[in-house]
Specification:
386 residues, alpha/beta, 8-stranded mixed sheet, 6-stranded parallel sheet
């Protein structure tokens, strides 16, 4: 097959500025090439990246984009010119994968391949406009249900296929929890919707004996153009910290990020974005390194977190979320040597290796094209496809 992947206007590929969607589709494109397909990947031109290059057999084309902003209407306006530039260079293809907002509206239904929309954000009414799209693919069942509700023509076009792990699982496993520093880690965007302020507040409410023995490390982008909450929010957070809390600048190298996961016992992801969180790739990455995950009760985590077995959850909707999170943290810090949960987390992460996830996408592409050798069609919210 000839597959084109069109990213949005705001982040480059490779994901040198971060971005779960960008990381996922880069490794998926490379997996498609390994499976014998031809892939063109179009993304933002910035940060000294060349206009054209080949990476792992994927042809990369880059065009000028724009910086992100916290205002959603400005995001939409800034993306228009990017999508129109992309249309001028799109090659003929069988499948066109995109999460750019305007692409399913501006592009012909078949000229550049069947339009395969990646719904990487909670839908807000736009999906009913995507009548030319052959498929609407979401990373979690929660988002699939929301997508189906927006469509008047039913849910037969909706697919659920998760994000893949953007790196290979270590052959040697991972360090034992008891051999790691007594460290709790958060890695992700430093933004109010991620619940980081609740995390810092909960941490400060822990007994001093715990904070003297343990450390909390927070890693991620805070700048607005990288998806963070901006300088004022970051300064607000820093005023709340004590000596047991440290902030690190964002880490976009997968190798370096894996090292951080391997040096933590507990990974906490306290997101409060009930209609902003669609999967939680950072949680899965930490699980792949044997961290014990503690996440909020958002439904996007239902697909891979089984409380008490491979992770833990707390209710961020309570009247006092800091106290609820503090109680869960204190319980985990009191008994952090239970490697069984970490081992189960690692085993869960194996199901998200890139080759397996890529095979599900390829099967879906083949089904859309009417090819008979679709051997493992993915599940949509009504059952099997194909």
């Amino acid at each position: 097959m000839r597959i084109t992947i069109l990213q949005g206007a705001f982040l480059p590929v490779p994901a040198i500025r971060g971005g779960a969607i960008e990381k996922a589709w880069q490794v998926l494109g490379e997996a498609f090439v390994k499976a014998g397909h031809e892939v063109t990947h179009i993304s933002r031109l910035c940060d000294g990246l060349p206009e054209q290059e080949s990476i792992e057999g994927v042809r990369h084309l880059r065009i000028p984009g724009a910086d992100a902003t916290k205002y959603s209407y400005l995001l939409k306006l800034r993306e228009i010119s990017y999508v129109l530039r992309a249309r001028r260079i799109l090659p003929e293809a069988d499948i066109l994968v995109t999460h750019a907002f305007w692409a399913p509206l501006f592009f012909p239904a078949e000229k550049f391949g069947k339009i395969y929309v990646h719904v990487g954000r909670y839908p807000k009414g736009q999906l009913r406009l995507y009548k030319k799209a052959s498929c609407l693919q979401t990373p979690s069942e929660f988002v699939s249900v929301a997508a189906a509700k927006e469509l008047k023509d039913g849910s037969e076009r909706v697919r659920t296929i998760p994000y893949p792990l953007p790196f290979s699982l270590p052959e040697s496993g991972f360090p034992r929890l008891e051999d790691r520093p007594k460290r709790v880690l958060y890695a992700g965007r430093i933004h109010p919707e991620k619940g980081v302020l609740n995390l810092v507040g909960a941490w400060k409410k822990l007994p001093e004996s715990f904070r003297n023995e343990w450390g909390l490390r927070i890693i991620g982008p805070w700048r607005q153009d990288q998806g963070g909450g901006g300088s004022s929010f970051f300064e607000q957070l820093k005023k709340e910290v004590d000596s047991s809390i440290e902030f690190l600048e964002p880490i976009f190298s997968e190798k370096e990020l894996m090292e951080e996961y391997k040096k933590a016992r507990i990974f906490v992801y306290p997101s409060i974005a009930s209609k902003g969180e669609t999967f939680g790739l950072a949680v899965l990455e930490a699980m792949s390194c044997g961290c014990v995950p503690l996440v909020s009760s958002l439904p996007c985590f239902d697909d891979f977190i089984r409380p008490g077995e491979n992770g833990y959850r707390f209710d961020e909707r309570s009247n006092f979320p800091e106290d609820t999170l503090k109680k869960c943290l204190q319980s985990l810090l009191s008994d952090s040597s239970d490697s069984g949960v970490g081992q189960n987390a690692f085993e869960t992460a194996k199901d998200y290796r890139v080759d397996g996830v890529a095979a599900r996408f390829i099967a879906d592409f083949e089904a859309l094209l009417g090819r008979k050798n679709s051997s493992c069609p993915p599940k949509n919210i009504l059952g099997s496809v194909g």
